[in-house]
Amino acid sequence: MSENLTLYQRRLDAVPRGVTNALPIFVDRASGSELWDVEGRHYIDFAAGIAVLNTGHNHPEVMAAIQSQSAKFGHVGFQVTPYEGYVSLAERLNRLVPGKGPRKTLFVTTGAEATENAVKIARAHTGRPTIIAFVGGFHGRTMMGMALTGKVAPYKQLFGPLPSSVYHLPFPDACRDIGEEESLRALDRLFKADVEPSQAAAIIIEPVQGEGGFLVAPPSFLRRLREICDAHSIVLIIDEVQTGFARTGTLFAHEQAAIEADLVPMAKSLGGGFPIAAVTGKAEIMDAAAPGGLGGTFAGSPIGCAAAHAVLDVIEKENLCSRAVEIGARLMTEVQAWSNEAEFACIGDVRGLGAMVAFELVKDRDAHRPDAELTRRVVAAGGQTGVLLLACGLYGNVIRLLAPLTISNALLDEGLSRLKAALRAGMAEQAA
Ligand code: PMP
């Protein structure tokens, strides 16, 4: 048996099946946009550790920052004895998150904790119970994270009862004929049928749905939500966990809709591969929770804070926002060209924002016939052709491309040609 298979067998015996792996490939080392497995095989990373590595694997500045911090101290607990790195990172995010007026920032460790804390803060601020989220949205695997998430299998299946007072609206999806007007009408009906606006604490939305399939919220839709939240004193939570930190061509995706969020949960690429998450929001809302109501043992760890400072430096120095636009354009042009070829009638909608690019796999160019089986085969074939891919989408038929923003054009093109080979291999296997 190969080394990967031997390890995979041990993994099956030792780790519950509830945790899955995109590929049965064990990593030996990684650098930039490349990875090598325990058998020495080479991969180009279009998964970026699920949108965590906008600055690439082991960016030298990030590694230097965490090494220098760990030589001083690894953990003390901000709630025991604070440290400057936490405060200066909060000051930095308070400046960077779009909007006028004072902001404050809370650090936690994961994206789910960030969305949970945003909900806690919104409820404390408004004294109201209801949270409105979106079909296909993903906000984490904790109890409230699952309740907010708009997809049952596999995220909520078998885990109920979940926290109540959470409702889901349709997310605009041009490809399935759901326009922003339909979503807004659904909100209006919700206010008439189920909950009056005065009971709504928050609306939570991803500016581009990540796990939901890279559906982009139209800027006009985000602006309408902002107006509705203002009219009813509802807190607008913009979940930037997957979209944040230059991925979409701006530091935060909602900058492009020219709106201010009340609360912004973020995580993933903030730490450049090291766990740290945050909620930045309007100071008067952030201060609603009583002392002791927020925090966590590892929340805002010194190493996470040091890594995040380095990530923000790198994004600035290496112009990763404009690089995201270039990478996105290259990916979009190439995949769109494939979708026009007769050979690739399986490619449906190609979409995205900046370097957050995805495409649907469908049967016979029919947007209403998603092909989840082919999608699984293509991801698996990527393991053979040497490119790491991730599936997503409410119907499991979307391939998302999340190359690090530090990737060279040569590796990007090589990754694309390996993706094309994976598409061909997946199609051939399905036809057999
Ligand atoms: N929000 C969004 C938009 C996400 O994409 C994710 C993770 N995929 C989360 C929240 C949860 O983050 P974590 O897995 O770090 O808990």
Summarize the structure.
The protein has 13 helices and 16 strands. It has 432 residues and is of the alpha/beta class.
The helix content, as a percent range, equals 25-40%
Radius of gyration: 21 Å
H/E element sequence = HEEEHHHEHEHEHEHEEEHHHEEEHEEEH
Largest sheet: 5 strands, antiparallel
Shape: globular
User: Could you tell me the number of beta strands?
Assistant: 16
Distance between the termini: 26 Å
Q: How many helices does DSSP assign?
A: 13
Question: Could you report the average pLDDT, rounded to the nearest whole number?
Answer: 98
Unreliable sequence segments: none
What structural class do you assign from the helix and strand content?
Answer: alpha/beta
Please, could you describe this protein's structure?
With 432 residues, the protein is of the alpha/beta class. 39% of the residues lie in helices and 18% in strands. It has helices at 3-14, 48-51, 60-72, 84-96, 111-126, 143-148, 180-193, 219-232, 283-286, 302-317, 320-339, 372-385, 409-431; strands spanning 27-31, 34-37, 42-45, 103-108, 130-134, 166-169, 200-205, 235-238, 263-266, 277-282, 347-353, 356-363, 366-370, 387-388, 390-392, 398-401. It binds 4'-deoxy-4'-aminopyridoxal-5'-phosphate. The site of 4'-deoxy-4'-aminopyridoxal-5'-phosphate (PMP) has 15 residues, from helix 5.
